[in-house]
Design a protein that fits this description.
Elements (H helix, E strand, L loop, with lengths): L1 E10 L5 H18 L7 E8 L9 H5 L9 E5 L10 E10 L9 E2 L13
Parallel strand pairs: 1-5, 2-3
Antiparallel strand pairs: 1-4, 2-4
Catalytic activity: chorismate = prephenate
Organism: Sporosarcina luteola
EC number: 5.4.99.5
Length: 121
């Protein structure tokens, strides 16, 4: 078993608490499901948002998922780069896995599919 990084990103239409929490929860759950990851296999999760998202801590959505209470989660803001995709939530999940790096399924939802078109199926 080794440590793998699983990436994901999504966007929201508007910066509202429930919208941010729902989008984060949906993304993280799809990342875990697509890669058959159980919460006790997760080392940590880092969530970043573009600076236009400030209504909620996305980590709250992760901590409230069934079985995820003790998963270490941290939020931060992305660099404010001109022309960057707005209203974006990015997730980096560190997991213990036997899966080869090339077989990890990185999940991009909504407008975030533009970030890594090379990883879309």
């Amino acid at each position: 078993m080794t440590v793998r990084g699983v990436r994901g990103a999504t966007t929201v239409q508007i910066d509202e608490t429930e919208t941010v929490l729902h989008a984060t929860s949906s993304l993280v759950q799809e990342m875990a499901t697509a890669n058959s990851i159980a919460p006790d296999e997760i080392i940590s999760v880092i969530i970043s948002t573009t600076q236009d998202i400030e209504s909620a801590f996305p980590a709250k959505a992760v901590r409230t998922l069934e079985g995820w209470k003790y998963v270490p989660v941290m939020c931060t803001h992305e660099m404010n780069v001109p022309g960057a995709l707005p209203n974006c939530i990015r997730v980096l999940m560190h997991v213990n896995a036997n899966t080869p790096q090339k077989d990890i399924k990185h999940i991009y939802q909504n407008e975030a599919v533009k970030l890594r078109p090379d990883l879309q199926n």
